[in-house]
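--- STAGE predict ---
source: upstream dedup step, 1 unique chain passed
mode: sequence only
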Amino acid sequence: MFGDVSEGCEVVAKRSSVADADCPVARALNVIGDWWSLLIVRDALDGVRRFSDFQSGLGIAKGMLATRLRDLIERGVLTTEPASDGSAYRDYVLTERGRGLFLVIVALRQWGEGHLYRQGERHSLLVDTAKSKPVARLELRSRDGRVLRLNDTRVQKTEEK
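--- STAGE serialize ---
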């Protein structure tokens, strides 16, 4: 399935860098592995660009937000650019790496919709802007188009180059 310790995904008891781990999940979590960072990315995907807008929307302490934004910039998820309104402020903008987290955020959203709300409870929906309809559920597919489930996959080490 997703692998175990014997397949290269180590269990890490304390917070330390796993940037060079054999496991791509560990490497990804090293970059965006806390919930504040994922919520910042979520808001950036929704168009938030200003420090004050992230802070007020998330209700996060200014120092913690500054640390998370700095880390996301250092890890290549965000960059800054002159404010779009010409003011002296800087906008926080997703890089290509950051925009690549869109499917991760959608997957988390859909998992939350399916497992964390009572029947009929209100929540937000991700909507296709062209059709004004909710987007379809994400599916993992093989290269030939078959829908894959957990038991249809396994982790395989790549050959050393």
